[in-house]
Amino acid sequence: MNKKIGLFLPYFGKFPNYFRLWIKSVAINPEIQFILITDQNLTATLPSNLRVIKKEFKDIQRLIKDKFNKLDISLDSPYKLCDFRPAYGYIFDNLIEKYGLDYWGFCDPDVIWGRISEFLKKKSFYEKNYDKVGYLGHFQFFSVKEKMLFTEIIDDEKFRNYKYVFTHKYAYHFDEEIGIGLIAKKRI
User: Known InterPro entries for this protein (predicted)?
Assistant: First the structure.
């Protein structure tokens, strides 16, 4: 059971009123690192598996624009970050290395977690070498060797082409089954 998983959650603006429940549910999953990147101050006692990185949205915009410097990135609001989630392995590669992760992923702040490791045990995750777990935007993670999966082009659909999605204002839900889910299904 030594596979190290880290889930990224960039969140900007006021936390929802149920966010304390999310933090409590993080605490019951000590085998998973949750990496919260936010502009908010957290005053409560936090579980040891919750890493809080204080950043402004403009810092993340700059980081993403620097990572994709050949593209004219469209990232005007935090909501658009959902389209960039499949690229977090590339965008936050320094944090993946810093925390020694074997798997990286993303999650939503409105998911109140049960014991994730119990689910993973039932799926023999710890015995097998999965490249990807999950297919919806609220919770997915990938092997570190799949940092660039999002760059795969599988068909002519614009909403499955990261260059198109990352350079247009509309939210294409690239983190969902119709985006990275189909790309992974075709390739992995």
Answer: DUF6625 (IPR046733)
